Amino acid sequence: MRIVGALLIALAIAAAPFSWRYAQTLIPATEPDAPEPAPASAEAAPAALEAEVAFLSDQLARLSQRVDALDSRTALNLASVARPLEPRAEIPEATDSLKDAFAQVVLIADRRSANDGLSHATPSFLRELIGLPRPDLTDNCQSATNPRLRDLLSTEDVGPIRATLVRPALVSIRQVFANVQVFEPELYDRIKTAGSLCVRRIRGAQSAASAHAYGLAVDINIDGVLDSLADGKTQLGLILLADFFKKEGWIWGAGFGREDSMHFEVSRDKLEQWRRLGEI
């Protein structure tokens, strides 16, 4: 940001003499003994100055657009990705230099605080909100039989992936990816999914349904490469995506006791909002 600011100041200083000289050709002399304006043969000089001023103005506008873009990145909290992901990791300082490293696997720094400010939707809360997706849950994916849930579910393209989720979740994740496309287009082009709706119970539980069973979760990866479960590491691109999801009220599985960094699910806070609005 300091470099861009310095360039803007330098261009402004460089433009000043040209602007002053151009202005002098347009403002008539006011002193009594000022010389008469030059004849038509001198008209080329103002034209040249005008071209110089137009060129410098264009450069200033271009730099201003870059400043606006950087400000937008900061507003989305993308500046945090410039921090080292672990004390000894050597990660490029700017996100623009990461486009060839999105699939790189790195340690997740301070992962247990990844979802600070958001509440997890527990199985009991989801059951109270919608009811069980089906009464005979197993460890395998099945179809939903709960009429209320079935009426909420839909399958749509939401940008780089196709997902089956409840409709307000489809709207929300579409906004996530729209933001990614604007601010990280190289990353957007490499986003893949490992699935969304899967009506099953939580592994090891008897009757508690997974967020996937309600169409409230999606598994994301970069370039179709599946992330290893519970190793405290993830693809660098998923760390960048986590900021976009959190802004929309989604929980990141990297913060779970058993790390699952491909997993993103709707927070309880977001679900409470949808319930107040009558959307779920």
How is this structure best described in words?
With 280 residues, the protein is an alpha+beta fold. It folds into two domains: 74 residues; 179 residues, Muramoyl-pentapeptide Carboxypeptidase, domain 2 (2-Layer Sandwich). The protein contains eight helices and eight strands; from the N terminus they run H-H-E-H-H-E-E-H-H-E-E-E-H-E-E-H. The strands form three sheets. The protein has a four-stranded antiparallel beta sheet with strand order 4-5-8-7. It has a two-stranded antiparallel sheet with strand order 1-6. Strands 2-3 form a two-stranded antiparallel ribbon. Strand 2 and strand 3 form a beta hairpin. Helix 1 packs antiparallel against helix 2.
Question: How far do the termini sit from each other?
Answer: 43 Å
- How many DSSP H or I helices? 8
Structural class: alpha+beta
DSSP, total strands: 8
Largest pleated sheet? 4 strands, antiparallel
Radius of gyration: 28 Å
Sheet with most strands: strand arrangement: 4-5-8-7
CATH architecture classification name of the largest domain: 2-Layer Sandwich
Secondary-structure element series: HHEHHEEHHEEEHEEH
Report the portion of residues in β strands: 5-15%
Question: Kindly state the mean pLDDT as a whole number?
Answer: 79
Low-confidence stretches: 1-23, 25-42, 63-95
Give the C-level CATH assignment of the largest domain. Alpha Beta
Tally of structural domains? 2
Fill in the CATH topology of the largest domain: Muramoyl-pentapeptide Carboxypeptidase, domain 2
Helical proportion, percent range: 40-55%
